[in-house]
Amino acid sequence: MKRISTICILIFGLKMSPGVELKTVYEYFTENGIQSGLTADTPDLFRLNGREIRIVSGALHYFRVHPDLWRDRFRKYRAAGLNTVETYVPWNLHEPMKGYFDFGNGTNEFSAFLNLRNFVLMAQEEDLLVLFRPGPYICSEWDFGGLPSWLLRDSNMKIRTSYQPYLDHVTAYFDQLLPQVADLQFTNGGPIIAIQIENEYGSFSPIHKSYLEHIKNIYDRHGFNCLQFTSDGASNGAIGALPERGVLMTANFQSDPKGNLDKLRKHQPNRPTMVMEYWNGWFDHWFEKHNKIPVEDFAIWLDGIFNHSQTSVNFYMFHGGTNFGFMAGANKIPKEPFYASDVTSYDYDGILSESGDYTPKYYKAIELINKYEIPKLFRPDFPPKSPKVAYPSVILTHFLSFSDILEQIPPSAVSQSEILFPMELLDINEGNGQSYGYIAYQTTINFLQFTENKLMFDTPVRDFGIVLLDGEIVNNISDYWIHTTKTFDVKVKKLGLHQLTIFVENTARVNFGVAKDFIQHKGLTGKVHFNSELIKNFTIYAAEFKKDWIQGLKNWRSLTNNPDVKAPAIFKATFMLSDIPEDTFLDMSSWHKGIVFINGFNLGRYFKVGPQKTLYLPAPLLQLGENIIIVFEQLEHAREIQFSATPQLG
Fold this sequence. Notes:
The protein is an alpha+beta fold. It has an eight-stranded parallel barrel with strand order 4-5-6-7-8-9-10-11, surrounded by four helices. Strands 16, 17, 19, 20, 21, 23 and 26 form a seven-stranded antiparallel sheet that branches. Helix 7 (about 210-220) links the parallel strand 7 (about 190-195) and strand 8 (about 225-230). The longest helix is centred in the first third of the chain and has 14 residues, at about 165-175. It is globular, with a radius of gyration of 26 Å.
């Protein structure tokens, strides 16, 4: 009870409106002590500690939002009337190398984002309950659905099944993860009211129920006696669930609430209904339009959810945040190139924007929550809007050429091979391979004729490839290829030996599908022929672009003295801030394709094809005094970095 007493004091700005005696979430559900957690034993409402509750939750992924902004987002959730927050847990961030675990105490790019325990405790401080969804697979438009790429080093790996080596890895991970928060269950005085088993497993194939049983047994062994649930498309029924073990089934959908909830009720007639993912928006792929769900449709579908059997809801995404770094996911699609990667923004047309701003959906959500809230609870005031600033443009001053870049790849990340193989199988990172970034395959070719030289790839590039001859892009900057095979016509002005480099970007591993879709090795895996002759003997560079490497780059060249430099290249600029930093956006519309670092942190990818044209730069990544911007441009660079006070998402 000590934690609850402390939390009641910490809830910010609690003021009762004149004549209204509404209680906070924790005051109401713990006022007579805690006898029980969340139960789902009747067909109407959930009960928490014996009292009726309609769960009104919103997704908030701690790994997509800077930790200095968590509290602001929590307060905006609570002010809207949400009583719960939901989060996934990304395995690939918490165990980036086999046996190396990071819960906020590491030195990785994302370490500052990964204090899961602090996130859960802060949610409680802000008067929110927690739905906990640890996977191990999370989908979430996140690289490889949250799975670590080192799993792919096992040539027999069968993820999301009862394949014993996979189960062993899951067990080792959960044995580290679950103790971080097991004592934070509601019955222990914490905020966690329920935990999910796997994720949308009914959409996977083949289905191994023994795998789900394995996860449940791990939860039980770690003392998770809170409500356990699965989430899936309502049409999948119980094929990916464990109702026979008392595990609650929940549904994921966007529209047709009556049809979907009727299906869920048919499979589970005597328990409460819950939409674990009400898709109030949608994600974006490069080359496509920005997805938006009209407020009118959002309201109709939400009202239909609330009107159906006192259904509870989790907004996915109430606030989406950002796919920082290389962490955006991808999907298989039914047309060439049969692959589409996600943009950096995870705005999702959410109820709060990517940068945490109020939207028309926010106020519409409040209107409907007011109408259907059970029980009526106290709400804090709305947090102020966060200001957005368009800083003055910054002129680039220095660069590193493509050859400079390769020269600074550490020797441990350079290997020699007769054949091509993907980044995951490189013998680097203590036997874990390369997870993200780029891979360069370099060799020497003897040209015996000026024209009619054919460079032929017999397997698709994974995922974005360009060919360079003596450090310059072959033909023109539009001659890249994505996830397909290709034949290049190569011309030279001088016969003899030339350096050939095949430069490949891993633009994202697929995060949704069946077993065959999760064979996600990146780079080149087949053969390359030059004028029908097999090319052998490559120097392979793992260009991981990690934070410590970016910050350690040296031997910068002056752009003033080299105005005609061509991409691929790295560019640098600095700017000074004399006032407290504010949120801003980098306008990358005059650049072509690449990534941006601010003070060593990878903001993510930009690509001229859109729909996204700006990158969100949260204020906590800036600092008083000098700030350093580094841009790696793959195709065609601009001369300056422009800022904007508004996003351009398409």
